[in-house]
Amino acid sequence: MTVKILVVDDEPDLEALIRQKFRRQIRDNELMFVFAHNGIEALQAIEQEKDIELVLTDINMPEMDGLTLLLKLSELKRLLKAIVVSAYGDLDNIRTAMNRGAFDFLTKPIDFRDLEITIQKTLEQICMLKQAVNDHDKLLAIHRELDIAREIQMSIVPSEFPPFPGRTELDIYAMMIAAQQVGGDFYDFFFIDEKRLGFVIADVSGKGIPAALFMAVSRTLLKTMALKQQPPAECLYTVNHMLCGDNAPEMFVTLFYGILNVETGGLEFCNGGHNYPYILRAGGGVEMVLSRGGMALGIFDDMPYVNGAETLRPGDSFFLYTDGVTEAQNVAGEFYGDPRLAEILAGLSDGNAQNIIDTVVNDARKYAGEAPQSDDITALAIKYAGSGNEPVAKLS
Amino acid sequence: MEIKESTSGTSEVLTITGKIDVTTSGQLQDAIIAGINRGGCDFVLDLSGADYISSSGLRVLLIVIKRLKEQGGRLVIAAASGHIREVFDIAGFTPLFPMYPTIDEALAALADTQQKQ
Predict the structure, then answer these.
(1) Which one, A111, A309, A360, B39, has the greatest CB density within 10 A?
(2) Per-residue pLDDT for B68 more than 70?
(3) Residues of A in Cβ contact (< 8 Å) with B62
(4) Cβ distance of B93 and A296 shorter than 8 Å
(5) Mutate to test the interface with A, among B17, B55, B70 (most CBs of A within 10 A)
(6) Among all residues of chain A, which has the CA nearest to that of B95?
(7) Is the bond preceding residue A12 a cis peptide, omega within 30 degrees?
(8) Contacts of B84 in chain A (CB under 8 A)
(9) pLDDT tens-digit readout, B70-105
(10) Quick check: B52 and A327 CB within 8 A?
């Protein structure tokens, strides 16, 4: 590629001299020279010829001198490098030129061997700068793509609350805060039929783009199986089978899937290696739902998954979360932990779903303080208001 | 996270100090894979000094045991804290990684089954 160099000097003989000394490079199209005789002409040339990359300028010239030209060059948003030529021993001007952004200097009379080396060195520097600008642009493009990926990810989890304004039997709220632009957590909820609400919370191993891709696949598989009206354990079994089919990089997902019968409060679920959720009883009291349904999904094919069951009474809430909550770390590296979570939940039995989520997430973030968020934080709460048709509670 | 490696009989012992999370799990994977490539077969992961393992850490251990399984190797865990055992437990990983209260017991278990083989 030809490099275009602007030579600025009021010495009329210089042009012929340069054309003579660099005739091989000019003939081979390595270098191309443009000439100007003062700063003003130089700026005009730069304006006209956008591909000038290097300026070789004298200091003392009529109309506009080299030092003023350097100031003007620094105002242009161009990838230009300047070499100044000064009288031997003229240190003051050389210092000024360097401070105004000159890349290097030569002294008169010009040693053309030295000039050639200096040009070469400057061109290498320009080449590096171009590469850096190019890399920077690429990085910006990646950031833009990540922003779009984030929007896509946030749009595949339900984000409008209340999600089912007509349904008075329940109150749902959820929150997901990714530690990076995209994350590996997700939640979901949907009506399978008139009476049954399916809901999911899940956490993919790792973070960032790999986790986000695996999250999108897991979420889609689970929802597809769930809408086929399969019981939770059957759903997890099939999703696990499909995830194992072609899961080369050993990704896995912990996943809790439950089905709430909004008419009876009956809850059927399967916990595939996920953190144990909590039930907040209407009158107070917090219960950890310790039922384990099977292993995290995507690891071993043909693993058994079993259903668990609970009953929500009117006023009870079901709280699910990912380990970003309990493993939120403070600046000392200590964990938020289950005891603190259980303690804060104990005071929230009267709250609505949004109160519960907001209070827990705010507490976890308060606990973390200035420490950077290390994992995705996701939480989902379902408060069961009751349908008026529940079976009469048995006395126990 | 820091990893110290030592050998005891035919087993390699890796002593982990600190947190095994998304930023350090790659280091753990490299260390164990390097051990396997050196011809190591049985590994004890000493977690007495480890205070945390994230899902990325679990994932690395899965990759490693899959690799070991192909070569007839084993990996057992020694001295894991209650918190770490709970992480394995909740994810359903406990059946995959035999756990022992001390390194000596882990080594003895590996040696014992070796004799029987």
Answers:
(1) A360
(2) yes
(3) 250, 252, 299
(4) yes
(5) B55
(6) A295
(7) no
(8) none
(9) 888 999 999 999 989 999 998 888 888 999 999 999
(10) yes
B25 burial class (0-12, 13-18, 19+ CB within 10 angstroms)? buried
Contact across the interface for B58 and A205, Cβ inside 8 Å: yes
- Asked if B85 and B96 touch (Cβ cutoff 8 Å), the reply is no
Q: Return the domain boundaries, chain B.
A: 2-105
| A207 neighbourhood in chain B, CB within 8 Å | 22, 56
Instruction: Please give the Cα distance from B17 to A52 (Å, whole number).
Output: 57
Q: How far apart are CA A141 and CA A149, in angstroms?
A: 12
Nearest CA to CA, how far is B53 from chain A (Å)?
10
* Angle at which helices A91-99 and A66-75 cross, to 10°: 10
pLDDT in single tens digits along all 396 residues of chain A: 788 999 999 998 999 999 999 999 999 999 999 999 999 999 999 999 999 999 999 999 999 999 999 999 989 888 899 999 988 788 899 999 999 999 999 998 889 899 999 999 998 998 898 899 999 999 999 999 999 988 988 888 999 999 999 899 999 999 999 888 888 899 999 999 999 999 999 999 888 888 899 999 999 999 999 999 999 999 999 999 999 987 666 789 999 999 999 999 999 999 999 999 999 999 899 999 999 899 999 988 888 999 999 999 999 999 999 989 998 888 888 889 889 999 999 999 999 999 999 999 999 999 999 988 888 899 999 999 988 777 765 544
Measured between CB atoms, which of A252, A294, A327 is closest to B59?
A: A252
Q: Which residue of A has its CA nearest to B84?
A: A327
DSSP 8-class letter at A373: P
Is A71 in the same domain as A202?
A: no
Strand ranges inside chain A, DSSP E: 3-8, 31-36, 52-58, 81-87, 104-108, 170-177, 185-191, 196-204, 253-261, 266-272, 278-280, 286-288, 308-311, 317-321, 377-384
pLDDT of residue A295: 92
pLDDT value of position A100: 93
Of A206, A274, A335, the CB nearest to B22: A206
| Same-domain status, A235 and A353 | yes
The answer to whether residue A147 sits within a structural domain is no
Give the CATH fold of the B2-105 domain. Transcription Regulator spoIIAA (3.30.750)
Q: A376-388: b or e for each residue (b if 16 or more CB lie within 10 Å)?
A: bbbbbbbbbbbbe
Min Cα–Cα distance to chain A from B105, Å: 27
Record: contact A252-B55, CB cut-off 8 A: yes
Which CATH number goes with the domain that contains A113?
3.40.50.2300
Examine the domain organization and report whether A174 and A240 are in the same domain.
Answer: yes
CATH code of the domain containing A274: 3.60.40.10
B90 to A299: CB separation less than 8 angstroms, yes or no = no
User: Which phi and psi (to 5°) does residue B75 adopt?
Assistant: -135, 125
| Domain with A102 in it | 3-135
In chain A, how many domains are there?
2
